[in-house]
UniProtKB/TrEMBL annotation:
Gene3D superfamilies: Penicillin V Acylase, Chain A. It comes from Mangrovibacterium diazotrophicum. InterPro entries: Peptidase_C69. Coiled coil: none annotated. Its EC number is 3.4.-.-. Belongs to the peptidase C69 family. This is Dipeptidase. The keyword Hydrolase applies. GO terms for biological process: proteolysis.
Length: 560
């Protein structure tokens, strides 16, 4: 049986979830409309700047060392030997169409630190991308690194995909006095999709199916030694032992997986109460009794656009819809400024934590296609800021330079840059928050136009690059794709700047400018036409009166 965990663990895990909050979905070849495998990732951090990392392919002399810095903080952790040749990496995808994403689940607090460890989760991702060609190779690289150099982070779920397979791997360190980590990796069955969002999701797993499940040799015995599990091996659940679900894990984390699944599959209503954090009282952990499956089959095969839309959600149309309660204000704003929880009269309440959130640094949909040569087949559809209002630009995995708008060093969280996509997209969203219900319609329309053009153009770009690859050279194909990705990303950013200018003119000062035939309207003498002043909806005025009584009441002077 699984041993009961203290309330201290739940408090620490709950706090951890509030700090680290990302969302991944995993799409197998058989579940996609074009036979591509896909993973998504939203890097949600209040301090992470939206930029596209690039590591060129390189040869290294014997004895060369690599510095390891913690991805979250930049802290120097140590050095490991470099290998003879490393692959080119664009963002979270390498030149062989391997892609890796993650979400932090924290897990047992006593396993969060490990003296002498130097491999944090971010370094595992980016080192593996430089050293592995396939998902299975990446799993081998990552687990070997933590065995040799220790694991510096807390519990993590990893999405790992190549052009043929998609895997989820969950890992947690062994704590002080130990070295390395315990972990389980499972291949998502073809035709199915999975997801994770800061809550460990692997429960029981097959012990004799190395084609579809890999795990550390001590993942069960380590738990037994610690006194956390004493049942039969076949009943061992990774999540229930190392990171059980609590209210925060269900409401703030699993709810996001449920929301994404709900967009593409019927029958998810049976997990609504679980996603809302509602369980019957009694027992050790009722949250484990109605858990969502690790993978589901979508109602139809998913396009890249479908997967992008899975990443755009505020629980619309559900009981958790963030546009419907009074916290959304008069303009249906589906965002709540932190903290995630708050108290009234000593009673604790919470805001929802949706897939789309204001603090996203960058996000992507990584698409791997076996039908094309690797430098052409892999596309990292990359966007910055909030997933709901971003545009995903096609960054082919074979490109050799990063567009200026996404380039590392083009601004940062404390330095504004007019050529930075991150700052340009943030200008639009932060202005749109003021009158969200109306302005977001312009944002979504522009987004649909730009992304639609990208997708319509992709087959022609693929064909042209393939012809260059086969008839000229792979280098010529890469040059072509680099030029294309560069132009499209920078042009997209310029269009977004124009969108900001339009919104500023149209909605400044709470007024709404009139338009006619696609132009702002002027009167017969050339002056701006008098703008509309729509005010607030009636229900908002009612709420004000109920809250303030007669404070704003206009007095009838004739009665005196």
């Amino acid at each position: 049986m699984i041993k009961r965990i203290s309330l201290v663990f739940f408090a620490l895990a709950f706090a951890y979830v509030q700090v680290f909050a990302c969302t991944n979905f995993l799409i197998t070849k058989g579940a996609s409309a074009d036979g591509s495998s896909m993973i998504t990732y939203a890097a949600d951090s209040h301090t992470l700047y939206g930029e596209l990392y690039h590591q060129p392919a390189a040869d290294h002399p014997e004895g060369a060392m690599r510095d390891i810095h913690e991805w979250d903080t930049g802290k120097f952790l140590g050095r490991i030997p470099e290998i003879a040749h490393t692959y080119s990496v664009i963002g979270n995808m390498n030149e062989h169409q391997l892609a890796i994403g993650e979400t932090t689940f924290g897990g047992r607090s006593e396993l969060h630190t490990q003296e002498g460890a130097i491999m944090d989760y971010g370094s595992l991702i980016y080192v593996a991308l430089q050293r592995a060609k396939s998902a299975r190779e990446a799993i081998e690289v990552m687990t070997s690194l933590v065995d040799e150099y220790g694991y510096y982070s807390s519990g993590e779920s990893f999405s790992i995909s190549d052009k043929d397979e998609v895997w989820i791997m969950e890992m947690i360190g062994k704590g002080e006095g130990e070295k390395g980590a315990v972990w389980v990796a499972m291949r998502i069955p073809d035709g199915y999709i999975s997801g994770h969002a800061n809550q460990a999701r692997i429960t029981t797993f097959p012990l004799s199916d190395s084609d579809n499940c890999l795990y550390s040799k001590d993942v069960i015995s380590f738990a037994r030694e610690k006194g956390w599990f004493d049942g039969k091996n076949k009943d061992f659940s990774f999540s229930d032992v190392y990171a059980p679900v609590d209210f925060g894990g269900a409401r703030f984390c699993e709810a996001r997986v449920w929301a994404g699944f709900n967009k593409v599959a019927s029958g998810m209503d049976q997990y609504t109460e679980y996603a809302e954090g509602k369980v019957e009282h009694g027992g050790e952990n009722n949250y484990a009794s109605n858990r969502m499956p690790l993978w589901i089959k979508p109602d139809k095969k998913l396009t890249v656009k479908d997967v992008m839309e899975m990443m755009r959600d505020h629980f619309e149309g559900t009981d958790l819809d963030m546009t419907q309660d009074i916290g959304a204000g008069p303009y249906k704003l589906p965002y709540r400024w932190r903290g995630l929880t708050w108290k009234v009269d000593s009673v604790e309440y919470c805001n929802e934590r949706a897939i789309s959130t204001q603090q996203t640094g960058f996000s992507f949909v990584a698409q791997s296609r076996a039908s094309l040569p690797d430098p052409i087949g892999g596309i990292l559809w990359f966007g910055v800021d909030d997933t709901y209002s971003t545009c995903y630009a096609p960054m082919y995995c074979g490109i050799t330079e990063v567009p200026e708008c996404f380039r590392v060093g083009n601004g940062d969280m404390l330095t504004y840059s007019p050529t930075s996509a991150f700052w340009t997209f943030n200008k639009v969203t932060n202005f749109a928050y003021l009158r969200y219900g109306e302005m977001i319609q312009h944002v979504r329309a522009t987004q649909a136009t730009i992304e639609g053009k990208f997708m319509e153009t992709t087959p022609a770009i693929d064909a042209a690059a393939k012809m260059l690859y086969e008839k000229s050279s792979p280098e010529k194909a890469r040059e072509f794709l680099t030029m294309y990705s560069d132009n499209e990303a920078n042009n997209m950013t310029a269009q977004w700047e124009k969108l900001f200018e339009y919104l500023l003119v149209k909605y400044i000062d709470g007024n709404v400018k009139k338009e006619k035939d696609g132009e702002f309207e002027r009167n017969e003498w050339g002056m701006p036409a008098s703008p509309d002043q729509p005010g607030y909806p009636e229900w908002w005025y009612d709420a004000i009166v109920k809250s303030t009584g007669d404070h704003f009441k206009v007095l009838d002077e004739s009665a005196h």
